[in-house]
Amino acid sequence: MQVLVVDDEPLARDRLIRFLQDLDQVTGTAVAHNGFDALQKLQAQTFDVVLLDMRMPGQSGLEVAEQLKILPEPPAIIFCTAYDDYALAAFQVKAQAYLLKPIQRQMLVDALDDCRQLNRAHLLALTDQEQVPSIAVQTGREMERLPLTEVYYFRAEQKYVSLFSRRGERIVDESLNSLEQRFPDQLIRVHRNTLVYRPRVVKLTRDIKGGFWLTVESVCDPLRVSRRHAMVLRRLLEGHSRVAPDK
After folding, report:
1. pLDDT digit string (tens) for 214-238?
2. What is the CATH number of domain 2-125?
3. If you write DSSP's letter for every residue of 26-41 in order, what string do you get?
């Protein structure tokens, strides 16, 4: 069981980490100092459980819990807080448990055991959302859920992956390889740094210098296609008569 501890108080974080490190069922731990930090870590790594403080600078625990719903595999949530007046709201965002500080070891063990009994299908059902392909993207300090059907293409540049859609450009905390593995039937690689949403593909053309270019629906400028990926695209498009003659 992978557990993320989210708390802005160092003493509270350390106490929880000490408890977790003594438990056989916990195979790994990580810490986040606030809600924004937690969301970044959850985009980069899958956790089974999040121990979430309620009052933190920036985003509250409730706000973080709401945004966890957009994750493809949302973790179980255990609130760990000094305030008892948020319990109803906590369970409205599908928290598995609500523990009051100072957290007692056995209380934590019991809550984690309950989480172990929830399989991934149950956790997805708790989100109360239709499970449609979607991408979690950053907009400033906020996160939003963007349906894959709105995507034009993804492009990797230096350390970042950008998503382009009718809403503009957004940063995605996920590699192209990861996206390609998650959506093998919806995305196609056209260059080492570019993935395109398949239904947006219009036609493949070749210029007088031998370069390949892909026209993508709703995108003004054609995208460069590598020679290796052009062969795959040709095979894909030949049956749809969308391979243009060389120019």
Report:
1. 999 999 999 999 999 998 888 878 7
2. 3.40.50.2300
3. --EEEEESSHHHHHHH
